[in-house]
Design the sequence.
């Protein structure tokens, strides 16, 4: 006997993500999901970005990590609400844990929530958290072949940050190869070439993220 | 993509469907897997065999139905399949595309005995 099912395998996560998305929209809170391999610079990017955005928006951060509070501790100096999710082995965040984390912000009425996802280029792309957009972060020390290897992330993301551009002279990273491959995957996606260490390229990123947040709440 | 996590979710849906459909034993699962997921079929089959051991789905067949990536151009409305990871309209060359198919992880149907 055959029973027709036609159900999304990840329906539990998707249904919750849709709920989260609606709740955030009703509160006019914009949520951004930062996705990258471990060590690309997500926390460093947040360190640079939070200082700037705090002036204009009420910002909060959800820190996702397999273990420790180390990333959250680095961001404490900004005196903003931070909630940590330790997945204890889980390699990506999911919408159920995001819902709980958002509840922990309590009375804080936030304009923007950054989610720093677990360092992983594969699984986070498959798990909708209810975010307004995904931001893909890669670094020049990871090799220039990431777009071709991880098509789903680079198709789904709304922007790509290429970090550690100051180290390009010391690696075999070929920028033209990277941008060519990225264009093959996603010809529309804005690319921000930055260095969190030197500050290079960050102003364009700040302009874009500010514009995105403003557009998302219109 | 972690195949074990996918199969855990598959099994959850199989249990729910079997319960409401009155199936006492599962013989086959038809699973649609979009190419964009980059799932490894062998790992999926291995995970399936592992998770269903000792359950009412033990020994059943997991049929993986690959779904190729199909895009629609937002500029010229051309609909096309991707043969390689080159996301550009085959007609007008625009990168402004909408994904029609290729991201699915769907259970199409379940076969079993009452």
Sequence:
């Amino acid at each position: 006997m055959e029973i027709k099912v036609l159900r999304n395998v990840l329906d539990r996560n998707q249904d919750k993500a849709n709920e989260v998305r609606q709740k955030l929209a009703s509160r006019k809170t914009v949520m951004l999901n930062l996705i990258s391999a471990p060590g690309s610079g997500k926390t460093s990017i947040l360190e640079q970005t939070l200082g700037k955005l705090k002036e204009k928006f009420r910002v909060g951060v959800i820190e996702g990590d397999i273990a420790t509070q180390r990333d959250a501790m680095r961001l404490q100096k900004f005196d903003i609400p931070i909630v940590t999710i330790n997945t204890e082995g889980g390699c990506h965040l999911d919408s159920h844990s995001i819902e709980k984390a958002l509840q922990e912000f309590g009375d804080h009425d936030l304009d923007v929530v950054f989610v720093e996802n677990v360092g992983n280029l594969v699984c986070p792309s498959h798990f909708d958290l209810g975010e307004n957009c995904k931001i893909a972060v890669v670094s020049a020390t990871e090799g220039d072949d990431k777009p071709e290897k991880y098509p789903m992330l680079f198709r789904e993301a709304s922007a790509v940050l290429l970090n550690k551009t100051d180290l390009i002279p010391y690696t075999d990273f070929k920028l033209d190869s990277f941008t060519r491959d990225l264009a093959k995957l996603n010809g529309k996606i804005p690319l921000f070439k930055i260095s969190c260490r030197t500050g290079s390229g960050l102003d364009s990123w700040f302009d874009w993220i500010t514009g995105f947040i403003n557009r998302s709440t219109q | 993509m972690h195949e074990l996590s996918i199969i855990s979710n598959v099994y959850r849906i199989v249990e729910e469907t079997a319960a409401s459909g009155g199936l006492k034993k599962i013989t086959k699962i038809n699973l649609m897997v979009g190419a964009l997921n980059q799932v490894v079929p062998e790992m999926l089959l291995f995970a399936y065999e592992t998770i269903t051991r000792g359950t009412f789905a033990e020994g059943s067949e997991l049929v993986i139905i690959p779904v190729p990536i199909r895009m629609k151009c937002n500029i010229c409305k051309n609909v096309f399949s991707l043969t390689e990871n080159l996301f550009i309209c085959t007609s007008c060359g625009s990168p402004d595309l909408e994904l029609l198919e290729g991201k699915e992880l769907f259970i199409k149907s379940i076969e079993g005995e009452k």
Notes: The mean pLDDT of chain A is 94. Chain A touches chain B at residues 1-12, 91, 122-123, 126, 148, 151-152, 155, 183-188 (CB under 8 Å). The two ends of chain A are 51 Å apart (CA to CA). The helical segments of chain A are 11-26, 42-53, 70-75, 95-104, 146-149, 151-156, 175-185, 202-216.
